Every structure is written in structure tokens, then in C-alpha cells.
Amino acid sequence: MRAEYDLSKAERGKFYRPLDKGYTVHVTKKDGTVEVNHYILVITHKSPFARSCTADAGGSPTAA
Questions:
Q1: What is the per-residue pLDDT across 23-38, written as a single tens digit (0 to 9) for each?
Q2: Are the CB atoms for 36 and 24 separated by under 8 Å?
Q3: Is the pTM of this model over 0.70?
């Protein structure tokens, strides 16, 4: 990896936010009005490619 990509001071999970709370998106249109939408993740089926994972004591995912 190149020197300009120094990740030595990186913080894991800095921008993490639980998906069950959802996200609010504000869209500003050309005429100046703002449309506000709230999105919540809904899982309807389990993907055959998904792996079940749990976190060990160190916070690293481990296959279950």
C-alpha cells in the first residue's frame, strides 16, 4: 500500500450506525423545496451467499 494511505491512526467503526434505526435522507430539489425520506433496512430472505458471523471478545468477526 502506498505511503499516502497511512492507516496507522485509523479507528474501526468510526462511522458505524445501526441499520435498524434507519436513515433520513434530505433531497433538495431545483425549485428549493426539500423532500425528506426515512429508510429502514428490511431483510425479507436469507441470501445463500450470506455467512452467519458473531463477534469474538476482541470484536473481530468469526464464522459461526
A1: 899 999 999 999 999 9
A2: yes
A3: no
